[in-house]
């Protein structure tokens, strides 16, 4: 699983999918990256967008 560490030491999980201009999905309090799977599949395949979750 890929992670990036912020300047304050917080580790954040991310995924990249697709190519092209990026779309960034940001989780809300009770959700996580899995809630965006349908959107990532759609934009990554059909629109050629790079999706960062």
Can you tell me about this structure?
The protein is α+β, with helices and mostly antiparallel strands and 53 residues long. It has one domain (14-52). 19% of the residues lie in helices and 26% in strands. It contains 1 helix and 5 strands. It has one helix at 37-46; strands at 3-5, 11-13, 16-17, 22-24, 50-52. Strands 3-5-4 form a 3-stranded mixed beta sheet, with helices on one face. A hairpin with a 5-residue loop joins β1 (3-5) and β2 (11-13). It is globular and about 35 Å long. The protein starts with a strand and ends with a strand. The model has no long low-confidence stretch (mean pLDDT 79).
What topology, given as strand order, has the largest sheet? 3-5-4
Describe the sheet with the most strands.
3 strands, mixed
Helix content estimate: 10-25%
Based on CA inertia axes, which overall geometry fits?
A: globular
Total tally of structural domains? 1
- Poorly predicted spans: none
- Structure class: alpha+beta
Count of alpha/pi helices:
1
Whole-angstrom Rg: 12 Å
